[in-house]
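Forum > Structural Biology > Help requests

Title: Can anyone predict the 3D structure of ABC transporter ATP-binding protein?

Hi all, first post here. I have the sequence for ABC transporter ATP-binding protein but no way to get a structure on my laptop. I'd be grateful if someone could post the structure tokens.
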Amino acid sequence: MSAPILDVQGLAYAYPDGHQALFGVNLHVHQGERVALLGPNGAGKTTLVLHLNGILTAGAGSVSVSGMPVAKENLMEIRRRVGVVFQDPDDQLFMPSVRADVEFGPANLGLRGAALEARVVAALDQVGMVDYIDRPPHHLSFGQRRRVAVATVLAMEPEILVLDEPSSNLDPASRRELADIVRSLDVTVLMVTHDLPYAYELCSRSVVLSDGVVVADGPTRDVLTDDALMSAHRLELPFGFDPRTIPAP
Ligand SMILES: Nc1ncnc2c1ncn2[C@@H]1O[C@H](COP(=O)(O)OP(=O)(O)OP(=O)(O)O)[C@@H](O)[C@H]1O
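Reply #1:
Sure, ran it for you. Structure tokens for ABC transporter ATP-binding protein below:
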């Protein structure tokens, strides 16, 4: 098999207050995979994500993206390669118009004029939001703001798209539409979620993090139907959802 596009080796991290959040995490993701990162509250999922684009720096171990180590000297390139969509779109949208927000990243990379406009329109088109290009983001609904947040990241043409709780606060139709968008993208995806049916629907592979350690890594169906694993790590399927009776997507 080819080298992983995302290679996390022995990653350990303690916050400045001494709290150890990750203990030697290994995670290898190959190009084109869609992987769900599951685990109970406080497991270390966000801490891991914050290492993928260098917001946090590994205490021990390493993270690399397409062979490039996540390190201070590479941060600009790493942030182009790894696009993180945070849970709250308002952490990502801060400009007076949708266009300005989506332009921001590629303009920083030096794109100008028609090339910049084409990049912005293409990114908004991928999330079905071209018609909103001149609207102020704060006049959009939450679900629309989440789509624009995804577009701000897609406009950077990332190699890896990291989605933190993408389905949270979405109504059922928006949730399904976002799933369709994710499926339509030709990009490697790491999706942090507590929404296990969403993980099942979108990611053929799931990694379970618990107390800062990877405790499972395999086909999502196998993970979600391993009752002992699920209860040991406070993972619960919603009432009526049984992957044993639902064909693998
Ligand atoms: N800034 C911080 N300083 C100290 N400890 C922190 C800090 N941020 C997170 N932690 C601790 O690190 C551990 C992992 O937190 P993290 O946010 O990575 O978990 P998570 O899996 O993303 O949880 P959730 O599902 O609740 O979002 C938790 O015990 C948390 O209390």
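The chain has one domain: 6-92+158-245. The chain has nine helices and ten strands.
Shout if anything looks off.
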